[in-house]
Amino acid sequence: MTPPAASSNVPRQRRIVHFVHALNGRTLAVLAGVLAGEMRGRGHDVALLAVKGSLGAQPLPSGVSAEIVGEESTWRTSGALPALRRSLQRHRPDVVFAHGNGPIRAAVVATRGWRRRPVVVGIEHNHYSSYDWNLRPLRDVVNRLLLPRADAVAGVSGGVVSDLEATFPPLRGRVALLPPPLTRYVDLGQLAAEPVEHPWFRDEVPVVTAVGHVHPRKDHRTLVRAIARVLEVAGPDAARLVIVGEATGPEADQVRALVTHLDLDDHVDLVGAQANPLRFVARSTVFALSSRNEGMPVSILEAMAVGVPVVSTDCPSGPAWILENGTRGLLAPVGDGIALGDALLTMLGDPDLRRRLASWGVQRAADFSPAAIAEQYLAVAVAGAAARDR
Asked: What is the pLDDT of residue 6?
């Protein structure tokens, strides 16, 4: 499914709310903030609402207000429904962009019964059917009831769109494609140029870099096994692996134990969360993603934008769409360390392939500029309003 036509002339100034579960500096909150800033720059009155988090977790775009509507102890989005309803009544938005499964449902419920109801656009950022949701049976029932009541529903990749329509038949033919923006698009060159002190980026051994907090869904254990495969086939100087992202908790302990078990302590380094992962990525030979599930991995797009070729698992649902089914980057089956290692061997061993894919990736990444994606969001809101008024 193709993205909606861009709306370069959205009529009149609108009051717009972007709603996320947590304002915590992670990808979804940053994405919503960047889109809010783009829309504010187009003359709209924009606010950012969250159930929990900290207003200092990320810098806010100029002119965009922010509000935490729940308590720090509020675990589920539904727990903040009364406060959300009151906040929306104060803001009186024309459009609510609800990011994520819980916020979509909450926005639909919170605005029901209004005499002048805002257009609710729900954006699903995960591949619903394969995501490890808690309380899944109950969630399925509630989503089946509430998602079709949004004025527009979108998925962040073609696979997410298809999955939503297959999982919830009332949505068939209604789900738009709204890919995420490259949130740091205008700063990519500057971020990529920042120095890296890590010694592995100063010698001749190729570095494979992965970005993402160490979580079972990211499956870094398979990536560690893939590096073991590379070294087994091509020797100890074939590659090193740097994992950038929060690395605390049981899963990180398991990954480190596997590194030691496979005698890879001199070849794998978990460097922890970094304010600027791109400085590591830009100096890498290959970017790798080993996830079991993704919606639309911005980390792949950022790697492409700074000219680094990508090897990824063919997980649902974003990588294959971004990489055009493996023609613009290499794909391997989920959870298969040998296959992922062989894909890395192919990429590491073919400089011409890396150059071709890097050049294409820079061009492809331009399609995901915040300005271009904000136009698509606004177009979906206009289409949702028109469909509701018919």
From this structure: 44
Asked if residue 243 lies in contact with residue 356, where contact means CB atoms within 8 angstroms, the answer is no
Contact criterion met (CB below 8 Å) for 285 and 261: no
- Tell me the pLDDT band of 268, cut-offs 50, 70 and 90: very high
Q: Which CATH class is domain 15-181+369-389?
A: alpha beta
| Rounded CA separation 183/373 (Å) | 10
Least confident of 248-252, 307-311, 345-349, 362-366: 362-366
Q: What is the mean pLDDT of the chain?
A: 92
Q: Please state which of the four CATH numbers 3.30.70.100, 3.40.50.300, 3.40.50.2300, 3.40.50.2000 is assigned to the domain occupying 186-367.
A: 3.40.50.2000
What is each CA distance from 121 to 99, 117, 264, 378, in whole angstroms?
9, 12, 47, 10
Q: What is the CA radius of gyration of the chain?
A: 21
Please choose, from the candidates 40, 160, 35, the residue with its C-alpha nearest in 3D space to the C-alpha of residue 98: 35
